[in-house]
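Question:
When you can, review this sequence-structure pair and walk me through the tokens.
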Amino acid sequence: MTQACSARISVSDRPLRLAPLVLVIACISGCLLAPMSTPITYTPASNVAPIPGASSVHVHVVGEDQRTDKNSVGQYGQQTVTTTTNVGDTARDAVRTELQARGFLVSNEPGPGIVEVRVQVLRMNGHFFSTLVYASYAAEMTMHVEVELKGKGIVYSQSFEVTDTYLPSDFGSVSDHFGLALSGALQQGVAKLFDDPAFIAALLAKSPPPKS
């Protein structure tokens, strides 16, 4: 009788012993599957000179995020990487900043005689790569830009595909490293746009100035 009672106690105690282990596994699984958030930022180019004639051109910039999933910006293993950054607005503000640095007059609203620049983000995606020697983060961005003049229609239309690879030199957070790669792709995309002479030429071939 004593042995049987002892066996029953041992069996009933087993779930209690396993409970902490089950809880730890559940927590780890939840952490691995929970989305990771990362910021996307833009740093203005340095040593930018005003462009002759730009001070007489009024420009209105529109940003559009045309990706299907506007929150996801990559994958880290089984973990989705998201951003709280409005990608379309960030791309728009980056282009606005560079236009102002070159002497263009940026308008908050469209109107007669105002050049419209449409910045469309078609792709923004990051990946993590790891070997025995190093780890790296790569980000790809596809951006389409149009310039429209009132009465003339679209006078410029060009897509830019860029890839930025970031090799971390420290043990910072995965989120920060992803953000640096994605931000680097945005930097490259905007730099390519302003390195295109046809883009600047389209801006300077402006409509008549707005009425005062």
